[in-house]
Amino acid sequence: MSWLEDESAVPMGVAGLSLRLGMLLAGAMSIGTYSALVRGPERAILNPFPAHPRGLIHYLAMRTAWERASLPIGAAALLLPVLLAGHPLAWVLASLVAAGGWFVGLMAGFTVHLGSVWAAESAALAGILNLIRGQNPQLQAALIYGPGVALGVGTAAVFGASEGARLVLMGQPLGALLLGIPLLVGFLAFLPAGGLAERYHFRTTLILAEIDAAYAVEDRDPEQARRVYLEWLVRLLPQKLHLEFLKELRHGWRGLRAWLTGAWGFGLLGLVSAWSSNPASWGRSLAIALAALVAIACVGLRLSSTDPLWLDQTLPQQRRVRLSARALAIFAWLQGVILPPTCVLLLRQGGGAALSFAGITECAALALCIASALFSPLRGRGWVPYLLSGLLLWGGLVGGFAV
Amino acid sequence: MPAIEIQGLRKEYGRVVAVEDVSFSVEPGELVALIGHNGAGKSTTIKVLTGQLLPTRGSVYIAGLDVLKNPGEARTKLGYVPEDPRLYDYLTCREFLELVASLRGHSGIDEALALAGLGQDADRLIREYSQGMRRRTALAAAVLGRPPVLILDEAINGLDPPSANRVKSGLRALCDGGAAVLLSTHVLDTVERLADRVIMLAHGRVVADERVCEIGEAGLERLFLERIGASLEQLP
Questions:
Q1: For chain A, which terminal residue's Cβ has fewer other Cβ atoms within 10 angstroms, N or C?
Q2: pLDDT score of A226
Q3: What ipTM was reported for this prediction?
């Protein structure tokens, strides 16, 4: 954050930094709302009962906000160097912009995910969804891209707010009005959520059952059952890792497929961001890619939540082999985040930019996959040290290289 | 009006046909057992009935309500115990039932606890419960407010004998009060003692729909082996 030393560069620096942080928080909340609404535990528990969808959405929004209240606080903490450099107003404004991203991601997320259920069944969108579904069932395609749409809405709102912060710091008080954009967008986006919940909350259960059934049928196909994403990598590894590595690949592909394909979604976002000859796009892409690496590498912890605990307790497990296999599998999955923007940087900004981008992100991916694998035996308790190390890594590298 | 009505149900999972042309109804006050071999289509039928799965073809009604068109309203008429009930582990059984009672707009928690035999353990956290107690908690939640239709997916399996007896008596009492019960089970003894009628599924089709009292001395097991065994032998 060298711009902190140059008074005239502070407004632009704060706008750029707060935009990235706001986007990160909007992205985290869009995934958080998906987890709470679509695949959350409430659905399985309350499904047999005549739950009130409108009330349930309000409850889920409040619970998600409470559970993720640490994110804007963490963002404000990451911005502390701005305060310590003697820019209290800039720190307050940047923190507000980041919190705005958190808020708009939360509020828009519920509406977007409920709208995804409509999109999944829409005859008009069937052709498009079929084109972009990859190996997923068509109904799943709409749900997969839901968090991306919520992130898009959040990014637009946060961009407006970050411009407001810049204008205020340049002495134009009317810019403060722009800081309210995420609040306004968030409230407006949440307005239809109750009505959509009435129509689509129970419908979502049906859609999910169809999606799960489609995956199950796919897995019963003997040809398909033998193939999982990146299975060919097994051949490149030492023999003693083969079995565990294959097990991790199968576990991830069959249990957390959306996360693994999500890595390529983030890669696409990084690609779009890097598609510029402006050197500033390098830093922007790096910030996005590092955030995506932190998000996707947590699959190690998610995998551990469905590991059969009794096997660990009753069979002599080769702990080192197992954790190594898990770390390697995560590292392989993370390449989806890194490769697309690297290729675009190579095309648009040359080998130096691409090499430095790939070097930093691959090192970060290595550190994150080791952290995720190492903390995975802790199961639920592993999230705190993982997220803490992830945030520190992201903050450190973005602060050191991207800003 | 039947309490449960299925007409021409077909469900495909890709190329796999899970149930084909399944039709039956359950009248108020009737306790009907749904039996069949593993993979016969019992769970698929129950999931469609409870609005968790879309049928490929056919119609499904609970207390006269189309489950697909009025899922929320249909749930107010339905008590359902899934095979693997999910519960809020951090609540006590009584707190969980209070939540369900508020959703249903009914009281009767003590009555439900008595039927499930959980009165003494009602104030313990659900996470401390055994599998059988969890299943009984789900059963208590299902019978809260005395819904006119009860659908139980393997709900009695795995209960200890005193609990199973209490639950069976409770179910019989609910039927005598006019509720319709559809019970999926593998335990033929339970069917013989408890059910008014038995519907057998094999390979997704109804192969028998008989009143238990008319099955005769040959017994249910023989009928099961005749109808379902014959169906299995026809497999390629």
A1: C
A2: 63
A3: 0.76
